[in-house]
Amino acid sequence: MKTVIISCLLLFSFGLWSQAAKPDYQLLWEIKGKNSKKPSYIFGSMHSNDVRLFNFPDSLYTAFVNADAVVLETDVASIADQYDVRLNVFQLDIFDSKRSFTSSKEATTTVYGDEDGRPQFLDAYFQQTAYCAGKAFYPLETIEEQLNAVEKINLSNPRAAINSYFFSKETFMQTYLQGDIMGLSKMLQHQFNGMPGAYDALITNRNRKMVNGLDTLMRKGSVFCAIGSGHLYGNDGVVQLLRAKGYSVRQVSANYTDQITLDKAKMQSWRRYELMNEAYQFSIQLSGKPIVTETEEQFSFIYQELGQGNTFELLVHKEPFALEEHYNKFIVNASVKPVDSTDRDGTRIMEGLINDPIKGYQWKRYLQIKGWTYELTCYGGNKFMHSDRPKKYFDRLLINR
């Protein structure tokens, strides 16, 4: 059910790029208050990992770099431990009993795109870049509030169902890439014809709440806010509502250059998050901030690339852990043989492929040292499972021995 709901959200934030200025580009706006020391910015996003979305104008890099905090509709990173974003992984016969890999190189599709797109979808990219840069992050609404708004749509009406598919995703994409927020707004309104109250529940009512939240945050400092582009346009759109609160809001022109500006280089350098834990004597570099939990029995984290659907996990078992009891979980055939060895320093290593009954095929490595067991797990789509990325992830774990 959550997958269906999240898929519906794709519609709310949906030309070709060139290296010239785009005067009609209306996705980036500068916001100034009467007492603002420096401007804030709002950017119309699209909830997708399509690579075309990441060809930003030079002004966006400057806006992001100079902001004190990053703001999104919701905390998208928090859904990483709630559900699997992969859509067709369980229909794809990645492995069989005779060989470790199929010859297929098909990209697994996800709620936010597929494996041919960027690791994170656009909103999640901004959030994780903020974490890597050490910037504060704030959501304007909770995941539950966003999903509750979507659940109010009545899709049982046949006319509503037809309208919901009137425009293709590519049509939305091309309109978005042109920066045409008026066109996007009209398309969205047409999508909701025949669904009384749907547009207000999903767009208008949420716009007011977002503006109130932005007003509070911008009184404390400058922000870079990314929300679905369908929320920007119109008398009830976020741009006009901010103006009604007394803010000066102006369109920022889109300029593209072949050279890498200082702000672009700086923003692109924010792509590593180092997690260090002195208590469990390890450090590891990830592409963003993971969700960390700890109990009396174990420490764990999970990090997910929501665009491509790849998941990275670590469990540190504090109690004695018998590796031999887990050996039979590994797949053993002519092509896949689990590794079971002991290093000179006494570190026990067990590694291989398992088939989890809920999450499907996973690569797993156990490291046992000083009485603790570090359990690394990663899994994803077809391309990920056939790549060297699982081993690279395993090798990034550094233990203070």
Features:
single chain; 401 residues; alpha+beta; Protein Transport Mog1p, Chain A; seven-stranded antiparallel β-sheet; six-stranded mixed β-sheet; 12 helices; 18 strands; 28% helix
Task: Describe the overall structure.
With 401 residues, the protein is an alpha+beta fold. The chain folds into 2 domains: 2-267, no CATH class; 272-399, Protein Transport Mog1p, Chain A, CATH 3.40.1000. The protein contains 12 helices and 18 strands. Helix 2 (58-66) crosses helix 10.
Layout of helices and strands:
Blueprint: H1 2-9, E1 28-32, E2 40-45, H2 58-66, E3 69-72, E4 109-110, E5 113-114, H3 122-133, E6 136-139, H4 143-151, H5 158-163, H6 169-177, H7 181-191, H8 198-218, E7 223-228, H9 238-244, E8 248-251, H10 262-269, E9 273-277, E10 282-286, E11 291-294, E12 298-305, E13 310-317, E14 339-342, E15 348-356, E16 360-369, E17 372-379, H11 382-385, H12 389-395, E18 398-399
Parallel strand pairs: 2-7, 3-6, 3-7
Antiparallel strand pairs: 1-2, 1-8, 4-5, 9-10, 10-18, 11-12, 12-13, 13-17, 14-15, 15-16, 16-17
Helix pairs in contact: 2-10
Task: Summarize this entry quickly.
The protein is α+β, with helices and mostly antiparallel strands. It has 12 helices and 18 strands.
Please report the total strand number as a whole number: 18
Q: Trace the largest sheet across and list its strands.
A: 11-12-13-17-16-15-14
| Secondary structural class | alpha+beta
Continuous helix count? 12
SSE topology string: HEEHEEEHEHHHHHEHEHEEEEEEEEEHHE
Question: What is the percentage of strand-forming residues?
Answer: 15-25%
